[in-house]
Amino acid sequence: MNSFWSLVAATLVKDIRLEWRSKDALNSMLFFSLLVVVIFSFSFDPLAEESRHIVGGLIWVAFLFAAVVALNQTWARELRNQVLDAYRVSPAPPNALFLAKVLGNFLFVIILEALMAPLFVVFYQLRSVGPVWQLVAVALLGTWALVVNGTFFAALSIRTRSREIMLPLILFPISIPALLAMVDSTTVILTGDGTPDFWLKMLLVYDVVFTLVCLLLFETVLNAE
Amino acid sequence: MKPLSIAFIVFTLALLGFSTYQALVVAPTEATMGDVQRIFYYHVPSAWVAGLCFNVNFLASVVYLWKRSLNADALAAASAEVGVVFCTIVLITGPIWARPVWGIWWTWDARLTTTLVLWLIYVSYLVLRRFASGGQTQVLAAALAIFGFVDVPIVYMSIRWFRTQHPSPVMGGGENSGLAPEMLHAFFWNLLAFTLVGICFIVARYRLQQMENEVEAAHAQLALQGGAR
């Protein structure tokens, strides 16, 4: 078990170092979601009261699209120099590789969200009525939901023609319940009517179920010929 | 085509004709909704066949991953395609009925939304099958099929929490549920006929997929022989 986690750590550190030096994923995600924030902001120009109702949808759509940018690069990076084939022939457990990739993407998307959240506050004059710490819980659970399936589907779509387009096509339909939970719980917290308890539990169930399915099937997909 | 298949198709067509007669002529007109209620005889059986297809798709995908048999994959492909067709029928007949009865074409209700999401998931499954290349198609498709199947109950639960407007199940529901006997009659004939139509489609598509696999194998064989020469 220890060697499993040291493998996870090794791959994760490698990915973070690569990202730190190139900043490919973070820069493109940041700029992309900045564009979404600006375009939505001047096309709606909402009052503070209205924006509480719509910003839950905007914020998660922006992060979802931005996350796809990073997710697409996850495995594409490993195709160069046949690194992915090397992983396949190595005796390392495939799930270690998968978990490292998920943790890496999770970290990048969380950083993106932390950097973008203040901009949403500025552009939409946001002031939350409900407790803000619940938003953090929504962000952590929701991001995991997007990233765990996203990383898996990126591994699927890397095997297809037109791989960049394939990922959102298969990721979005499966993510609809998670997205609904994120959007609605954010709205509930911001407007202060009702509690997001049900949605948080649902996100937790979604995370557990799909993490298990991913771990069960990843080896099969990695070795698909 | 084998005589048995021809007999099955003829029988299905005859049954479909009979059930259509039952639904459009024999069944009484509904008291409040009028003739538009008759769409129920097509809407619900289509939903049933679509559900059946998606279950077959899941089972066939699991069997494929387990046994790696191309026939299981052919069955998965066939049932997903037929399921999408019937799911489309459900999504089209629903709004046609809803417009005069509810006064709206569409609402984000649990069953409607779940059906729509189901449709989206299986369309994405078909897109993946089309875009994947070579021998990987089957594995990738089977993996996605399992994700889709696991997702459906979660979608249903989440949207049920969100809101619900669809009429509750007409049969086996509360005290006021239940159909008039003639309606029940027409409904069950249609259910049977649609199920047989669905089976016909799946079998036809399954054979087609098998033939495609054979052609592909023959091509590969030919290429190998050409390379050896």
Can you lay out the helices and strands and say which pair or pack?
The complex is a heterodimer of chains A (225) and B (229).
Chain A: H1 2-22, H2 24-44, H3 48-79, H4 83-89, H5 94-124, H6 133-157, H7 163-191, H8 197-222
Helix pairs in contact in A: 1-5, 2-3, 2-5, 3-5, 3-6, 3-7, 5-6, 5-8, 6-7, 6-8, 7-8
Chain B: H1 3-26, H2 40-67, H3 70-102, H4 110-131, H5 136-162, H6 181-228
Tell me about the biggest sheet of chain A? none
Main sheet overview of chain B: none
Low-pLDDT parts of chain B are 172-176
Determine the structural class of chain A based on helices, strands and strand pairing.
Answer: mainly alpha
End-to-end span of chain B in angstroms?
Answer: 37 Å
Return the average pLDDT of chain A rounded to an integer. 87
DSSP helix fraction of chain A:
over 70%
User: What's the number of domains of chain A?
Assistant: 1
The interface involving the most residues is between: A-B, 32 and 30 residues
State Rg of chain A.
Answer: 18 Å
- In terms of quaternary structure, the protein is heterodimer
